[in-house]
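User: I'll paste a sequence; please echo it back and then give the predicted structure.

Assistant: Echoing your sequence first, then the prediction.
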Amino acid sequence: MNQEYLATSFAIFAAKQAGVDEVTADHILLGTLRTISRFGIATVGEWHIDLEGLGVDWVNQPDGPRPKVAYSQSAVALFDRAAKIARSSGETVVSTYQLLAAFSAEEGGLMGELKRAHGITSASWRTAVAQMAAADSAAANQDRAMTEVKNTRDYLTPEEAAEALGVHVQTMRAYIRNERLPAFRLAGERAIRILRTDLNKVLEPLKGEK
């Protein structure tokens, strides 16, 4: 699910809980913080923001399709600012990080309260968000690299072989027990490995029905 979609879904949820028909910038901030939170705590740099203290129901999730709601001028201006920030980075989709960065210019409302309570400045907030985005990007790159290595490795575990064929791992183990699929055991160990090129041996041409 798109991060902006999730953040705005939480924002609408927060507005509904507050009993108002218009989503404001404060609701967008609450929704964005809810998106990055763990166990009700949103961590942005050195600041740990307790969502419960802000009146956010962080346990329950929005259910059903998002209802059509009106957005306040402050919310529209915030989305516009986030879109400009995204374009300045060469990105076409607004993410949670652009939404958070857009709040750095806010001095009123909930963001203003957080700034005064935690001694947050525009620069320190943007620095923290930039570090979060960089860490997330590095983690995503590492995951992609690990996936590429896994997809090119010659020998697979039964779980990896099952995933490659799109079958349950117990089905893969049955192929091995029935000798439909060659397998190897690591010397002196119980670990089983399957040669990637042998996976074709459990495939057969599909004959047309008469």
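Strands lie at 22-23, 41-44, 47-50, 70-71, 155-156, 184-185, 192-195. The helical segments are 3-18, 25-36, 73-88, 96-102, 109-118, 122-152, 158-165, 169-177.
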